[in-house]
């Protein structure tokens, strides 16, 4: 019988958190600097509790729950339980969950969220056994840039030009109010993004939107491509460097303003961004799309993205547990 203790996490646990994440999610690695920056830019008014599980003074697992900034509700929380692979199957995850559940019930939680890859059978079973059900599915895809089909770039650019659109990087775009334009565009376009049932986006203020962006030294505005017409941003496709994988980019937001859809802008921006990434010597690009987002999935399929195991967004509802 192992003697397990749970204690609140401290800043000294950051290296353990990073190492555990990278062991459990080798395809989505992070760095200590990334986690430190995320912590520094986190809203202090959101509830966050994190616990470290120890056996004989050795850290073997983590548990966390937090309110979500982009889908805020005072009684809804994201939760996560992680255990070192060699310590799994010994009741440690169960013990962590019981602590989190007790505290969340005391906070009158009505809904919990957690994510898991569809091929992580142990983790998926853990959630299902505790009343979580799949609520949303995200199709993960990966592209080897050497195999990318960029043959449609010239015709896509010609179509955009004929429609009166200018395609350029956000770094090149010289409008003095370009940050306000991008914020307004993102706020509007995000409302059309698929999201879990009964949830709404709580879009941040202008200042809150830009603070973590400006604080991230990895972001490169010359890899953000925008479509501009009549002095306004009407389309966007972002690629962001992955600090733990220098040869890899992660797709950010790709979208078109409602009044400018079906003009081929999303495809043109995507091809332009990927062409620039390939020119710079990047090797891989990753992306994720809601499984119901057929138009964007179709674009990614044309370019050559290969489906990977899906990410499942699981939900626990208090009303379903009674």
Automatic annotation (TrEMBL):
InterPro entries: Acyl_CoA_acyltransferase, Bact_Acetyltransf, GNAT_dom. It comes from Deinococcus psychrotolerans. Gene3D superfamilies: 3.40.630.30. GO terms for molecular function: acyltransferase activity, transferring groups other than amino-acyl groups. Keywords: Acyltransferase, Transferase. It comes from the Bacteria. The keyword Transferase applies. Signal peptide: none annotated. CDD domains: NAT_SF. This is GNAT family N-acetyltransferase. Residues 4-151, 168-319 form the N-acetyltransferase domain.
